[in-house]
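A sample follows:
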Amino acid sequence: MKFRGKIVDVACLNHFTRVVTTISKLTKTCVLRLTPRHLYFVLAGNVANGGVGMWCELAQANFFDEYQMEGVSSEENEICLQVAPELLSRPLRALQSATAVKVKLTRKHCPCLTVAAELPTLTGGSRPVTYDVPVDVIPRRLWHEFREPCVPDFDVSVYMPPLKTMKSVVDRMKNLSNFLVMEANMNGQMNLKIETDLVSVTTHFKDLGNPDWGGGACQQREAGAMVQAQVDVRKLQPLLMGQQVNPSRALCNIVHQRVVHIVLLHDDVSLQYFLPAVA
């Protein structure tokens, strides 16, 4: 197995760093799948049993100026690594002033993603900087666990308000309860609600619009009927920092009282997040 990538464009480096930093807020560990055309950050949580799931897809050509990889075989040309995204995010943030950043799969005391660059010095020269991020190689027999998850047949799909606005609302609501009700309908309306024995608070969003999926349960539902799911605020809040990804669109799909599926879309990044409903 071999992997080597090089990022020269500063904007691409900044964007890649923001993506990895966002993922580091969502999970302590995840799987990094490397294929000839894409990189995937995967968290295969069992949503049915209360786990959180994540699938983030990046087109490598939109980030890397040089990209070479050889998988385990010509038939299965990919590499799966377990990585702590925070450990990968740190060197990327530290190397923002570099003229180029190289990422390479190496084996030192253990398998590592080695991040290397030349940083400018005050005297006008440069100094080499290298970070080794330990990883675990995922055996092929487990790869089936890290395929793209099936999107549930949701009851409602709605575009979300700006993530910054939602984050501000949720940050205030978390002081009142650990649980938040998200509800929406096919008239482009979404409500965020906190309901406890002492207080009831609702924030209303309207005229958000609804994606056209061309069928499914949401297209057969009465437009004004609300569909809701209660989620753990502590699991929702980190995703709302996803404005770092600068999504051009964000949408929310809800399966009544079962799961909230949030999708952040950028020209070169797709981030799916699955939140289980809580009773």
